[in-house]
Amino acid sequence: MTLVVQKEVPAIIIITAFLCAICVYAGSKIKKADPYAKPTGIVCAALAFIEWVDGMVASTVRPSYVEKMGPYIGSLVAYLLCANLSGLFGFNTPTMNLSVTLSLAFITWCMIQHAAFKTNGVGGYFKGLFEPIPILFLGNVIGKFSSLISLSMRLFGNILSGSILMSLIYTGCGILSNLILGWTGVDFNIVGVVVAPVFHAYFDVFAGFIQMYIFISLTMALVSNELGDD
Q: Contact 29/37 with Cβ under 8 angstroms?
């Protein structure tokens, strides 16, 4: 039996270790910070980030749930940004692996079901599977899992398609470079050097931010849909 390590694993380990180190360092600085002094450096950045995340969560879900969802949404923002942008540094982007996006979507799905149980109770939750008529039971069950599939496939598909397009762009630029410099005997992707950064800015940076925002927005919206009013 051969153990096969997925090519995204090194990036996952490095990103996780990096974020853990940042959190530990920021936590130690916050503990030592003077609460009456103006925050600076990483303390200021951490407080601004937390305030931004809490404000975003508070605008979507009911106030009593902000404290529960805030840490998860903040973790998603940090991890997805690092994962989606890691391709710029030569790593295999973790979110190109369906197991990664499916794992993140599963955590979100568990939060959705927790919110549904919290709002409706166990009896109300299972009763809702038979509404408005019992014959729709199977469709309601499938609907419960639709968010798990859509969240994971949307993130995975968009990041993977961006990577495939970038590979095609590099290949095309290489062909054009050979046509331009072929007579010189120089093997250099001169077109790629000029063109590729523009497409990296869109497919890696812009798309990375957008896909992160879509994932967290859908997470908050789906959880909020299952919550009642305070």
A: no
CA distance 191 to 199: 12
pTM (predicted TM-score): 0.88
Q: Are 208 and 199 in contact (CB under 8 A)?
A: no
The packing angle between helices 207-226 and 66-85, to 10°, is 160
List C-alpha distances in Å: 229 to 101, 132, 141, 225.
30, 22, 25, 10
Long-range contacts of 87-90 (CB under 8 A, 24+ apart): 87/163, 87/204, 88/200, 88/204, 88/205
Break the chain into its structural domains and give their ranges: 9-226
C-alpha 119/C-alpha 128 separation (Å) is 12
Percent of the chain with pLDDT over 90: 40
What single string gives the DSSP state of each residue in 23-77?
HHHHHHHHHHS-TTSPP-HHHHHHHHHHHHHHHHHHTTS-GGGHHHHHHHHHHHH
Do the Cβ atoms of 115 and 104 come closer than 8 Å? no
* pLDDT over 60 at 230, yes or no: no
Work out the pLDDT band at 228, boundaries 50, 70, 90: low
